[in-house]
Amino acid sequence: MFDDLRDLYQEIILDHGRKPRNFRRLEDADLSARGDNPLCGDRMDLWLKMTPDGRIADAAFQGRGCAISMASASLMTETVKGKSAEQAKALGARFRELAMTGACPDCGDLAEEMERLQPLAGVHEFPSRVKCATLAWHTLNAALEGNKEASSE
Amino acid sequence: MFDDLRDLYQEIILDHGRKPRNFRRLEDADLSARGDNPLCGDRMDLWLKMTPDGRIADAAFQGRGCAISMASASLMTETVKGKSAEQAKALGARFRELAMTGACPDCGDLAEEMERLQPLAGVHEFPSRVKCATLAWHTLNAALEGNKEASSE
Amino acid sequence: MTDGPASSAPRLDVERLRRDFPILAQTVRGRKLVFLDSGASAQKPRQVIEAMVRCMEERYANVHRGAYFLSEAATEAYEAARGAVARFLNAADPREVVFTRNSTEAINLVAHAWGRGVMRPGQAVLVSEMEHHANLVPWQMLRDDGRGIALRVCRVTDDGELDLEDLAAKLADGKVGLVAVTHMSNVLGTVTPAERIVAMAHAAGAKVLLDGSQAAVHRRVDVQAIGADFYCFTGHKLYGPTGIGVLWARLEHLDRMPPFLGGGDMIASVTLERSEWAPPPAKFEAGTPAIVEAVGLHAAVDYVTALGWPAIEAHERALVDRAMRRLSGIEGLRLLGRAQDRGGVFSFALDNAHPHDLSTLLDRAGIAVRAGRHCAEPLHARFGLEGGTCRASFGLYTTEEEVDFLAEALVKAREFFG
Amino acid sequence: MTDGPASSAPRLDVERLRRDFPILAQTVRGRKLVFLDSGASAQKPRQVIEAMVRCMEERYANVHRGAYFLSEAATEAYEAARGAVARFLNAADPREVVFTRNSTEAINLVAHAWGRGVMRPGQAVLVSEMEHHANLVPWQMLRDDGRGIALRVCRVTDDGELDLEDLAAKLADGKVGLVAVTHMSNVLGTVTPAERIVAMAHAAGAKVLLDGSQAAVHRRVDVQAIGADFYCFTGHKLYGPTGIGVLWARLEHLDRMPPFLGGGDMIASVTLERSEWAPPPAKFEAGTPAIVEAVGLHAAVDYVTALGWPAIEAHERALVDRAMRRLSGIEGLRLLGRAQDRGGVFSFALDNAHPHDLSTLLDRAGIAVRAGRHCAEPLHARFGLEGGTCRASFGLYTTEEEVDFLAEALVKAREFFG
Ligand SMILES: Cc1ncc(COP(=O)(O)O)c(C=O)c1O
Ligand SMILES: Cc1ncc(COP(=O)(O)O)c(C=O)c1O
Prior knowledge:
The complex is a heterotetramer, with 2 copies of chain A (153 residues) and 2 copies of chain C (418 residues).
Chain A: H1 11-18, E1 31-37, E2 42-50, E3 56-64, H2 67-80, H3 85-101, H4 111-117, H5 130-144, E4 149-151
Parallel strand pairs in A: 1-4
Antiparallel strand pairs in A: 1-2, 2-3
Helix pairs in contact in A: 1-2, 2-5, 3-5
Chain C: H1 5-8, H2 14-18, E1 27-28, E2 31-32, E3 34-35, H3 46-58, H4 69-88, E4 97-100, H5 103-116, E5 124-128, H6 137-143, E6 150-154, H7 164-171, E7 176-182, H8 194-203, E8 207-211, H9 215-218, H10 223-226, E9 230-234, E10 245-249, H11 251-256, E11 267-270, E12 275-277, H12 291-307, H13 309-328, E13 333-336, E14 345-350, H14 355-364, E15 367-368, E16 370-372, H15 377-382, E17 389-393, H16 400-417
Parallel strand pairs in C: 3-15, 5-6, 5-7, 7-8, 8-9
Antiparallel strand pairs in C: 1-2, 4-10, 9-10, 11-12, 13-14, 14-17, 16-17
Helix pairs in contact in C: 3-12, 4-12, 13-16
């Protein structure tokens, strides 16, 4: 009945959805933001610890949401560690393109990272679910820019 | 071009419309009321002088409005003179029926008076104009019942 | 006459009436469409669509304004719709029917014109925990408006019914000026005891507004028998057009209320210095109304009336019984609300799937259900379901097979998420 | 390219486009329909009707709420309509477009959310003598609301133009917070100098709302070029459905304004204690919107855009010139307004016939004109015409023959009333 949904709900998504990585509070965070998707009621808090030279030393989150949003946040926290703010933002821009179109032609320079995010590409077929996948990245942007609130509205 | 409108705009209507009878203020009136048709902007003041035994000794009006409403008020003031309040109200009820349906099957007892009002019967074919014809009678009712305002809305 | 209630009860010919709804014939992502979101908005029968088309192709002009043929015809059609709605609700007078955009605007109208125009400082509005945001937010805005009007909230029992003891307690001090509660919950399916609420409220000196957005679709409503002061519903849920809703209110209330929106058609006279209001309902219908939509709503009301309430209610009871039986048996599924008196709206949560994931899955099977908090966040918080629920809601055209199909899909969905 | 402006100007093929309007083909009381009341409400082309039917037959569900196919499709269509309206007005951002029921509601929204929510005591709203009641009564209600906001009225010249000297004088003390004036008079046809008004108002520290209910039908509107703060129009006059209108406002203004109506879809989160508002435009669209009507308005905007403004404007200029010439020549006919810049709306009075009698007469000839004060009582008082006027207003489908026919009928009508 749901076989064709394995594209969207790949095992890795279900796994990250059920057991999100870096799902904890970072008490000594340098940056943080809260992300909201008012439509779904998804909500997450994101914390970042930065290195002296401006790289992301650690990223963690807590919140509630669907498998897509939890998996996306989980994969994101794994992927951005070690990146500079610029790199993380660039990655976010590419990811949003991937989530909206299913492809990312210009992703050559970030091929490896995008590879890890690829399992979420299937969401582009579900317009109302794209925001679930991008909420974490909106929240990351907000945190990096010193805003306290992000919304995927 | 407009020949078939002679039913509505009979010569007597045009005449009363142009030169309404009893078009004056009654300084020593016993009863009066103002009638309004907000949709058209028609407006009239009606004054009544009563005899000691409760008959209409004199009726007069002033106001502005279309030929139908002026003619109707003019004919009304002529027709109700000498009538008791009850008779005048009964006449008004019959007239409203005439204006709405074009006929008045139960008008036997008031045949003579209705005859004089007959020229206005054509208005029933023009739903949005019926109120022009009945405004004067609404105003008469209001005056007889001691109300100061009437509306044909 | 036949001899027993079972056999004499009229039945809906669902297969046949489904043919009136062109949209239901389609396939979605290769599957037969199973539309179970009528509670959010119902589909439209061709009778409604055709009435709107005829209005625009044959008899359209602005209303109340022209003394020419088309305008007279349009005015007649618009006012005939008002008359039909008045009969539908068994209102005493068509002038008690005010056309609005939807239920939301109807309630806001009351919150402004009655709440700000008639209620006094120190009084309170009493809502319930199971209100749709449409019947909560306008009252919060009134409370926060600095006019000294308080907001009280009646509790809901664990079964999802209005807690009448709490209602009595919150009415006891006589300060409640208006009870504003739903006549049927859009989440729990609960039908509230309208007559009792009205009796209790009136005894305590309060007026009553009933939000009939859901109820008017599922039950015959008689505002006079209920004894309500205000009643509202929304066209698009009653198989009618979008863009039109109804506020019914007793004429004496409408007479007391100042207008809400200002503009054309709601005034008796205007000078630069001041305006005089027209009598109701015109006083509350500023500007060009939703003429074509009123005509469509008339057709919708006629459609439902022609099918007949006994048949509609029997059909719904059968669906509700079926759904209760089938859904209760699914492992790991939590059903919200177990009210005695309920209509065809079911909200539920699976233990291993978020409602959004579940609704995406069901969509793939062609099943349209709604996921979220259904504009009733406080109610979801009340039941500890901040993440929301999925909701299946039934219409005239819903079949028992569709209910079965939903139940099967839910079992498979639980397996999918493992 | 041809060599002169006259021959290169695109032309409307009126005979052909009339076939898009099914209603125009009918006879009225045995005469060919001559519909000259588009200023009150325009007729709908089949493209609009079909778009609405398709929406209801193929792609209907509530918007913004469901994660299933039909709801996604409906949401996409609804938001596409917003995008189309944004392009139509050349708005900087589709989020600046708020859907309302009509112009009247759009102006009331500003009167509440800006007038009561942002303006300060001691400030004034400045309207003009030629406003439609929709742009007068909401400001009177604001003035009478006890908030200390005054109402000023800019004079109209004998030619029916905005008196810009008076405007300057009334702006001079810097107390005017908002200038709310029409972009085109529905009585005089006058097109007001929007850019100049905006420049004068902004220099005096006032924001500007333009009532484009008539203008948006007759001219290409570019809100950015005009520099306005608020702009509104109404769907049914633009060949679109009833039940839908548009408020455009700069995003920064919408951000500052509190919401107007409360309910579903306009909130970010709701608890019993408080609610947080969603960002614009959702903040101003409480409840289920006029979905089908938005889709219809999209089709209307596309229809007008496809015909092209140069052709539409040229057609209108031809009609206006013709009407000016023909109507000015009629003995005993008084034409209201002689503005330099004017659109296809003509109000007039015969010396020997009341406007209602005249319109009944014209109706018999199949000619639909409106009689009364056209929701502009103060303007009629200004010109000493408390009894009202008759108004002929033109649309895309109006022909020069129809203008001629009107002129002939007026001559005969004057004879009739002798
Ligand atoms: C100039 C003007 N403003 C406002 C309106 C009001 O439009 P609506 O009735 O659609 O709200 C109209 C038309 O009636 C108009 O001509
Ligand atoms: C109980 C209830 N009240 C109010 C509403 C609001 O209706 P609308 O969005 O048409 O205003 C709804 C539906 O959304 C509802 O179910």
